[in-house]
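Renewal narrative, Specific Aim 1. Our central claim is that a sequence can be written position by position from structural information alone. The example that follows is taken directly from our test logs and has not been curated for this report. It begins with the structure tokens describing the chain, in the order in which they were read.
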């Protein structure tokens, strides 16, 4: 990921947690955007960008942009337990994103941002055979978000901007070498606040 765009601003602003945050702006036309706004995925830069209402409409249903920008969907689906151990990722707080080129990446939060691994394609195919809903993930813009830390059992299909919000929570709350006492309650609150939506 690069250090520019909506993702970087989201992580930076959450980490700094200043009371007087500057107004968010659409990354396409610079119009102010409300706190709740849509995002576009920039396929060339591999980052999420903020979009105002009118600009987001332009990219609905694969409209403008010739595939350069993709509107991040809004759906969230809570899944039954998904056995992600077959993917070989040794962390319990992670999200998996299928990519347009057929690869799948796993990303986990750290105090510095997201760490990324590439997932074995055959292992991902076995997982989607066991959980067919994963085959409906829109490449680049939706993810399987998992939290099995401390015995929790959260498995969600979410838009990628939810994943980046989770990374921002970790970065904001992390203290010292091990994360400190605030990080896991904050992560649990993040997952408790997720709600299903079509």
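The sequence written for that structure reads:
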């Amino acid at each position: 990921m690069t250090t520019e765009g909506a993702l970087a601003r989201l992580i930076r602003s959450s980490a700094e947690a200043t009371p007087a945050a500057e107004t968010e702006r659409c990354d396409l036309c610079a119009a102010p955007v409300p706190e709740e706004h849509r995002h576009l995925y920039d396929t060339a830069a591999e980052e999420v960008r903020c979009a105002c209402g009118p600009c987001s409409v332009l990219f609905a249903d694969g409209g403008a942009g010739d595939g350069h920008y993709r509107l991040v969907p809004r759906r969230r689906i809570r899944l039954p337990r998904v056995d992600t151990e077959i993917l070989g990722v040794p962390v319990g707080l992670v999200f998996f994103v299928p990519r347009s080129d057929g690869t799948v990446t796993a990303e986990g939060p750290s105090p510095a941002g997201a760490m990324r691994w590439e997932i074995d394609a055959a292992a991902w195919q076995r997982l989607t055979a066991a959980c067919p809903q994963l085959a409906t993930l829109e490449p680049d813009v939706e993810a399987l978000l998992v939290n099995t830390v401390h015995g929790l059992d959260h498995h969600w299909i979410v838009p990628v901007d939810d994943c980046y919000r989770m990374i921002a929570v970790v970065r904001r709350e992390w203290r010292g070498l091990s994360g400190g006492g605030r990080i896991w309650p904050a992560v649990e609150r993040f997952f408790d606040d997720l709600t299903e939506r079509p």
